[in-house]
Automatic annotation (TrEMBL):
Belongs to the FYV7 family. Residues 69-80, 88-118 have a biased composition (Basic and acidic residues). InterPro entries: Fyv7/TAP26. Residues 69-151 are annotated as: Disordered. The gene is FYV7. It comes from the Eukaryota. Pfam families: rRNA_processing (PF08524). This is rRNA-processing protein FYV7.
């Protein structure tokens, strides 16, 4: 057995109810507008006049054509924007790829330099003692490259 609330809710979702609601809203808006204009007149303000808009079929056709042209222009603009975005994304991807390749090259160069340095530093004499010449040369190179000592 449905409750009274369920019955009211059921009535709310019918076409007749919605039509009545729309009509009530329209009459309410018209009444409010009429009252607003009356108060404006009483207070001495000018009442905005309704501008007659003579609309012919030719005007309507012209407006529709203009709107379709604007829609087409907008579509063309959107397509251009998409193309530009794709182009920019491709450029950014290419730049990122180039930067990654450069990093790899730099890393390989540094690794080779480290290997050369370690081979120089680990040189030994015939008796197995470490050679001091390359170590001293390395220290001198560090001192010369440091900005404190080159003034």
């Amino acid at each position: 057995m449905p409750t009274s609330k369920q019955i009211r809710n059921k009535d709310k979702f019918t076409k007749e109810h919605k039509l009545k609601e729309i009509q009530r809203n329209l009459t309410k808006k018209a009444r409010l507008k009429k009252e607003y204009l009356k108060t404006l007149r009483k207070e001495g303000y000018e009442i905005p006049d309704k501008k007659p808009t003579p609309v012919s079929r030719d005007d309507i056709k012209r407006l529709r054509e203009e709107r379709t042209l604007q829609g087409k222009k907008k579509l063309d603009e959107k397509k251009e924007i998409k193309k530009q975005r794709k182009k920019l994304q491709a450029e950014h991807a290419q730049e990122a790829k180039n930067k990654a390749e450069e990093r790899v090259k730099i890393i390989e160069q540094k690794e080779q330099e480290r290997e050369k340095r370690t081979t120089k530093m680990t040189q030994k004499t015939r008796t197995g003692q470490p050679k001091m010449g390359p170590k001293i040369d390395d220290m001198l190179g560090k001192i010369k490259s440091n900005s404190l000592y080159t003034e």
